[in-house]
TrEMBL record:
It is found in: Cell membrane. It comes from Sulfuricurvum kujiense (strain ATCC BAA-921 / DSM 16994 / JCM 11577 / YK-1). This is Permease. The keyword Ubl conjugation does not apply. It comes from the Bacteria.
């Protein structure tokens, strides 16, 4: 039990600063980008919106957790399911920071391959979402919307009816830390707990799980990477250490692709935002695509030039710990607030009033 709680805290420290950054960045995005622009470019159930979402998300320096508030903001403001899913995949796998770090460690060929494959995975998932998910009759708020029940949906309102207020710092905090975080605080907490359990259960010597059977190594790489929380940049030294330990470059690439693309927290957010069908498409594309592109690495790239110039042991200081405390405190506040709101609704409905 102690290992689980220790893993829970370590996971919160690793994620907290990115979650908070993503929430505040989403608050800025909400105030700067007009809803009609999002609806025009990302709102239609067409392949074009999926392409734009994939390319728009590729250079953004957001991990698989800080991308959740961004994606939630896009969805709330009118982005289609396909475009939202495409954005959720392309954004965390790469970013301008991880692109430069990948170039410094693995060279430009491997870097281009990583960026190219992330865009392909994102576009494939978005297109499948548009094909297999029923067409949306009207834009609706996401399932975990924190909008009051009697209030009109901001997505259903027309651009003429809604006047965007002037930019304000308080508006950034209100939208990011109250509206958005409140909308997925439960899935976030569940993902943290599940991720901590998985992290505590996985052996520390991961390289011993891989053997000479490359296919088995690929499957193990996906099974280990998918539920774990690891950012695009942070996954690089892990992948490099796996290669040094004797793991095939293809299996290491699978870790680089599937690890940042998803984790237990993102899985819960995808299901909450887009539904079970989207979650199945999301996981299937990441798993099958990562294995396919990883196998191609072993087939095509026989030799990789690796420059081990990055410190494998990253120290987390007081800033990261303070961010974790703040994030967990906000989650607790939202959960308690939600319980009181449910109690008030039940009381108003006559179920708890004498």
């Amino acid at each position: 039990m102690n290992l689980i709680w220790e893993a829970f805290w370590d996971l919160s420290v690793a994620m907290g600063i990115y979650i908070l950054f993503g929430l505040l960045a989403a608050g800025v995005l909400h105030q700067l980008i007009r809803e009609e622009w999002i609806q025009k470019h990302l709102g239609s159930d067409t392949h074009g919106s999926v392409y734009k979402a994939a390319l728009f998300g590729t250079p953004l320096p957001l991990c698989s957790c800080s991308v959740i508030p961004f994606a939630a903001s896009l969805r709330r403001n009118g982005a289609s399911k396909g475009a939202t899913l495409s954005f959720l995949i392309s954004t965390p796998i790469t970013g301008i920071d991880s692109i430069l770090a990948t170039f410094g460690m693995f060279g430009w060929v491997f870097t281009f391959y990583r960026v190219f494959t992330s865009v392909i995975l994102a576009i494939t998932a978005g297109m499948l979402m548009n094909i297999f998910d029923p067409k949306e009759v009207a834009k609706k708020g996401v399932a975990f919307s924190a909008t009051p029940p009697n209030a009109p949906s901001p997505i259903i309102q027309s651009a003429k009816e809604e006047k965007k207020p002037p930019f304000s710092v308080s508006g950034v905090f209100q939208y990011g830390l109250v509206t958005l975080l409140g909308s997925f605080s439960k899935p976030l907490l569940f993902g943290l707990l599940l991720g901590a359990f998985i992290t505590a259960a996985i052996p520390s010597n991961l390289q011993e799980l891989f053997n000479d059977n490359r296919i088995l190594g690929y499957l193990l790489a996906v099974a280990i990477a998918a539920p774990m929380y690891v950012c695009a940049t942070e996954s690089l030294p892990i992948a490099a250490s796996l290669i040094i330990a004797g793991v095939s470059p293809g299996a290491a690439f699978i870790f680089l692709s599937a690890g940042p693309a998803t984790n237990t927290v993102t899985m819960g957010a995808v299901k909450s935002m887009l539904g079970t069908r989207a979650l199945v498409i999301y996981l299937s594309v990441i798993a099958i695509g990562s294995i396919t592109f990883g196998a191609l690495v072993d087939i095509v790239f026989d030799t990789l030039s690796i420059n081990m110039g990055i410190n494998l042991h990253e120290h987390r200081g007081i800033v990261e710990e303070a961010a974790a405390v703040l994030m967990l405190g906000l989650i607790g506040w939202h959960l308690i607030r939600g319980l009181f709101q449910q109690k008030e609704k039940g009381c108003n409905g006559g179920s708890c009033c004498s």
